[in-house]
Write a structure and sequence with these properties.
Elements: E1 3-7, H1 12-23, E2 28-32, H2 38-48, E3 54-55, E4 58-59, E5 63-66, E6 69-72, H3 74-83, E7 100-105, H4 111-114, H5 117-126, E8 130-135, H6 140-148, E9 154-159, H7 163-167, H8 176-186, E10 191-198, H9 210-224, E11 231-237, H10 251-259, E12 267-268, E13 272-273
Parallel strand pairs: 1-2, 7-8, 8-9, 9-10, 10-11, 11-12, 11-13
Antiparallel strand pairs: 1-5, 3-4, 5-6
Helix pairs in contact: 1-3, 3-5, 6-8, 8-9, 9-10
Length: about 270
Amino acid sequence: MTAILYTVTGCERCRVVKAFMDARGLTYTDVDAKGEGKNAFVRFYRDNQARILRGPEGIQFPIYHQGERVRQGLGVILSWLHVGVRIEPFVRPGLVGHGWAGGFNLSGGPQDAGRELLPVLRHLREHGIKIRMETDGRNSDLLKQVLVEGLADHLQFNLLGPAEAYARLPERPCTEEEISASLFIAQRAGELSIVLIVAPLPGGDRYLSPEEAAAAAAMVAAATQNNRIPFGICILQPSPDSSLAPLPATAGFKYRTAVRRYMLSAEILASDTA
């Protein structure tokens, strides 16, 4: 079945996807969702509304449709066209501003598979798209390659806790040496922000403590030799089916006080759900 690419006139993201498909000889039908193909898109949207993201500016184009597959967002579409599901763990849908691509997580899966992201990131860079990505420190060699090539305009480092927390991860645990190496090289990103994730620990019986948060911040300061990197504290409340009670609204202040001993710009971010 021929793929359909729903686009709109003047859409930079649409141009980038079409250039990728054309360069690889991939066949598709280009449907102008706000022009001659408006009625076709209205029908498509009616049938697939639950799977289509809308942001403050409305629907973000392009949208790729083939058979039962509906894919939206630069990273998601290009990754699928490149290697199919192989790098899905590294890319998620995301709504970003004009001229940007996001949703990339360099720690999303095994490092060898993650290297398949590089051709996608290079294509985006060649077409003038800025790239927003995340890491939690795992896959430090992949992170280094991305940053050496200048493929990250904004990097969010999601800090999961001190070294002990990384050693206890149920999937792909890693060492303090790897996390410290990632923190050091992360400074090569165009913009860097660090977000400490205060969440239920593996096993689900308690949260990361303020003392452990302070140890994580100390690890950052030691690895980067910079205590003024933008540093956020995000408290993840337990999922609805968890037996763990939510942290009180004032809990963030204890974490901020503990973290500021090592990272001077630490601030509390909005809470989220695990």
